[in-house]
Structures are given as structure tokens and as C-alpha cells.
């Protein structure tokens, strides 16, 4: 057992006997978990105090622990109940997505764990998600409600458009009135892939199997990548190519509506 070979002291590790490869790895895993848990423990301990605030600060100074650091850690602990924390990820990962809605940050943390993202890559995803949500809020706030349009009065005894009537020749085609651009109404042309669908907010397209990486949005009449820094597998890259083709078809089909999206 490792306990028979290693002692943890206040000064460090006291290794009394050589460690095998498996024992050395097990010890490293234990130390890594202890390091990840340490900051959570400090934050929860700081929040548990209910006495005099000045006394709490003086005691922290006696321990030679920085007050601002502890307060930052405690703020992350307050944002994440125990059941919402990912023990495999450091506290810094949780802090990177702390300001996002619970469902979004849970999805990003799970992705970071699954794909082995760095905290810098996770922050980039968080910034992209924040920008996307702000853009959608701006569209909803700036889009006025469409005014009701009067129904045109039917003209009696008028043949259908483009139908040849003996003795009368071709009837004059009626041009429908130009409809107002409807923001957030997807200008769908026949899709080239059954796997491509509109996004939940109908501001772009995404792949049904890889929605987290194979997604594009429309901004000011242009197509933008939802996550340009994503690391993709070959299948995910092919899925993104399908989404881009459908988005290009939509943009070419009804550009005047896509321009209206903000």
C-alpha cells in the first residue's frame, strides 16, 4: 500500500520505499485531486463564517492568506452548489464560465472535460457564447412588431395566373406585394442535407449530430462561424461543410431577409 511507503508531512512528501509505476501514478492522481479540492474547501470555509467580519479578516492575515484571493474563490463557490461542480476540473474552469446561464455553463464544462480543453480555450468559448446571446437580445429588442396587413379584395371572374384561356390569350400575371422582411424567420430553400436544421433561435443553421461545433449564424447579411477556435474531428468538419453549404444557399436565395438579421 502507498501509505506504507509515503508519508505526507507539513514540509512535503517523505518517501521511505521505492514506488512502482502504478503506485507513483496513483499518488499523483491523489495529489492532483487534493489540489483541485483545496480551493473549493477554502472558499466554502470562508463563506461558512457568521461572526465579526473584522475578526475574520484578522485571522486570515495571521494565516498569511491574501484576502482578495479568498474572496474571489468564495464567489465561485457561491455560484456553484456542490451538485453542479465538476470535481475533475479545477476551480479556474468553473470561474471561466461562471457568468453564463446554468444550462450553458454545464454544457461548456462537460465539453471541456470531454475534449480536454485548456482554460484559455474554455474562456474563448464562453466569450463567443456571451456575444451570441447579446446579439440575440439585441435583435429581440430592436425588432418592432409587424403591423397587420389588410387582405386584398378578390377580383371576380379572373382566371388563374398564367393560364391560357381560349379567345383571350394569356392573362396578365399578378405580382404579389413585396412582403416585409421578418427578422429571425429563416429564409429556407430546399435543404441539401436532412441533418442540417435551423438553430433554436432561427438565426442560423446547425448540424443535428454536431450542434456544438457545426453551427453558423447570420450577422448583417453574412455568414459567421459560431466557434472558429473549435477543434474538430473529420466527421465534425464534414458536418460543418454541410451546414455552410445550406447557409450559402439561404443567403443567395433571399439576401434581403438575411440582411435584416442583427
Question: Can you give a write-up of this model?
Answer:
With 262 residues, this protein is an alpha+beta fold. The chain folds into 3 domains: 1-79, no CATH class; 83-141, no CATH class; 183-259, no CATH class. Helix content is 45%, strand content 10%. The protein is built from 8 helices and 8 strands. The strands form 3 sheets. A 4-stranded antiparallel beta sheet has the order 5-6-7-8, covered by helices on one side. It has a two-stranded antiparallel sheet with strand order 1-2. Strands 3-4 form a two-stranded antiparallel sheet. β7 (215-219) and β8 (222-225) form a beta hairpin. α1 packs across α3 (67-79).
What's the shape? Answer: flat
- Structural domains: how many: 3
Beta-strand share of residues = 5-15%
Give me the number of helical elements.
8
What profile does the largest beta sheet have? 4 strands, antiparallel
**Total E-strand runs:** 8
Strand order of the largest sheet: 5-6-7-8
Structural class: alpha+beta
- For the termini, the CA-CA separation is 62 Å
Question: What would a concise description of this structure say?
Answer:
The chain has 262 residues and is α+β, with helices and mostly antiparallel strands. It has 8 helices and 8 strands.
Amino acid at each position: 500500500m502507498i501509505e506504507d511507503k509515503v508519508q505526507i508531512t507539513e514540509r512535503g512528501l517523505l518517501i521511505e520505499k521505492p514506488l512502482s509505476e502504478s503506485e507513483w501514478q496513483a499518488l499523483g492522481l491523489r495529489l492532483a485531486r487534493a489540489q483541485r479540492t483545496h480551493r473549493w474547501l477554502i472558499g466554502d470555509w470562508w463563506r461558512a463564517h457568521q461572526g465579526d467580519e473584522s475578526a475574520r479578516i484578522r485571522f486570515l492575515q495571521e494565516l498569511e492568506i491574501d484576502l482578495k484571493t479568498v474572496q474571489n474563490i468564495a464567489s465561485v463557490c457561491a455560484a456553484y452548489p456542490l451538485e453542479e461542480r465538476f470535481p475533475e476540473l479545477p476551480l479556474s474552469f468553473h470561474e471561466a464560465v461562471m457568468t453564463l446561464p446554468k444550462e450553458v455553463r454545464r454544457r461548456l464544462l462537460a465539453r471541456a472535460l470531454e475534449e480536454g480543453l485548456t482554460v484559455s480555450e474554455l474562456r474563448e468559448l464562453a466569450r463567443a457564447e456571451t456575444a451570441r446571446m447579446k446579439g440575440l437580445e439585441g435583435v429581440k429588442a430592436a425588432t418592432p412588431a409587424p403591423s397587420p396587413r389588410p387582405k386584398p379584395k378578390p377580383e371576380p371572374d379572373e382566371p388563374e395566373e398564367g393560364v391560357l384561356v381560349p379567345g383571350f390569350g394569356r392573362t396578365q400575371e399578378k405580382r404579389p406585394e413585396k412582403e416585409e422582411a421578418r427578422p429571425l424567420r429563416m429564409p429556407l430553400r430546399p435543404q441539401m442535407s436532412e441533418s442540417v436544421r435551423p438553430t433554436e433561435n432561427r438565426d442560423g443553421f446547425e448540424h443535428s449530430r454536431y450542434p456544438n461545433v457545426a453551427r453558423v449564424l447570420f450577422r448583417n447579411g453574412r455568414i459567421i462561424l459560431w466557434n472558429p477556435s473549435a477543434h474538430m474531428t473529420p466527421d465534425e468538419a464534414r458536418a460543418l461543410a454541410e451546414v455552410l453549404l445550406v447557409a450559402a444557399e439561404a443567403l443567395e436565395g433571399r439576401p434581403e431577409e438575411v440582411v435584416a438579421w442583427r
